[in-house]
Specification:
Blueprint: H1 5-14, H2 22-49, E1 59-60, E2 63-64, E3 69-78, E4 86-91, E5 100-104, E6 120-125, E7 132-138, E8 146-150, E9 157-158, E10 178-183, E11 194-199, E12 215-220, E13 226-231, H3 239-244, E14 253-258, E15 268-272, E16 286-292, E17 297-305, E18 316-321, E19 330-334, H4 337-362, H5 371-391, H6 414-422, H7 425-434, H8 457-472, H9 475-481
Antiparallel strand pairs: 1-5, 2-3, 3-4, 4-8, 5-6, 6-9, 7-8, 10-11, 10-19, 11-12, 12-15, 13-14, 14-18, 15-16, 16-17, 16-19, 17-18
Amino acid sequence: MSRYSAQKQFWKASKQSPAADAADAVLLTKLHHAAETEKKQNDQESSKLIGTDVQYGEVVQLLHLKSNKYLTVNKRLPAQLEKNAMKVTLDMAGDEGSWFYILPFYKLRVTGDKVVVGDKVTLNPVNAGQPLHASNYELVDNPGCKEVNAVNCNTSWKIVLFMDYKENQDDILKGGTWTTGRSSATSATSSHALWEVEVVQHDPCRQGSAHWNSLLRFKHLATGQYLAAEIDNDTRPDSMRDKLRGPANTPVYTLVPVPHGHDIASIFELDPTTMTRGDSLVPRSSYVRLRHLCTNTWVHSTSLAIDVDDEKPIMNKVGCASIKEDKEAFAIVPVSPQEVRDLDFANDASKELGDIAGKLERGSISPNEKSFAQFTRFVTQLLKKIIFFVGDDQYNGEGKHGDPLEMDFVIKDRERQKLLREQHILKQIFKILQAPFQDHGEGSMLSMEDLADQRHRPFRHICQLCYRVLKLSQVTMVTMCK
């Protein structure tokens, strides 16, 4: 269980007035050191507990692996939809609201018994006193998903095993691993080349280590779609495809995205490039050949461009053919969790900006509406987050104090700039800047002269933030050109 007393003292002191004397600055430095020491001690304690049995009545914390954030109950704020409930969020550091008693739902277990896979449990916040609850209210921004909050009700949660802790080894390929697949002769640094490996199991919630005889799926992180194969009727000549096709009129295939992982066309097998046992584990960084299961074909590269409408095509089709070519091997390269979290942030931000731009283009939001103030506040906060994201390589998506327009940023990581382009954030920024001044048939929402009016100050601030994003997205490249 992580402790937060030193971190809490530092958070409280850092939020006080910035007009502090030298003594306060020294105290703040000491508190920051104590908070960092407490974090390291928490990490050490957590690593010691890996592999130990969880017992009923113990205090546990729930860490969301993909975001690396703790499930946290905020007893001071109401839930977004169910107003009589407490708000539940994901928090980067966690706090006392991240502590939960794990208790048996049925009386066949008692305090002190071991928690068994398949058990139904209740998760009771230590400081809130109201158990974790799955609401019947559906989230507006995530159709099909329900709100999770904390309220005094009889809610149970089932313990389902995702992966045995013994299989969670850093040096092997396993379900949930983030990778980029690249040909042995090329390199790939685009966020569009990031995939999540899924090991096919009887239980769809279960994952585990990948063996050479395992069946795998590959989920595209940027779109959430799965890699699959279908017959390719492309008649353009390609030397590699002609070589690997086999007998004349033998069908060839191309890799395509499909929306669901339960499609049998999304299942692949790995073939090692060296002699090894079929039941041995797949090393995390490996060269492999890919076999598509239901067509019994081998994945290979081609020279057929798929972005033919672009001035300079850079993407080629990947195909499948019946003959295996030894040199058609792909490197499975591990990707850091932070890179995936950056992609998630950029992806979510792009969707939000797209919705904002759409409302402005349709003229469905007006400065005269009561909801306009709430709308501009939301846009402002989102743009500030994007500025901190691209300008500060240590930024993790959490709230940050200060006016980004008054700060100087040194771009150390160009990958985040690339994400702004690849995930179409810059495209949406341009739309936001243009939409209010376009005529939708009944005149434009604003004119350039209106921005000088104090009534439109919030939107003027939004425009300033947009231009700040645009400047930061290319600041390193401009410097390099000079």
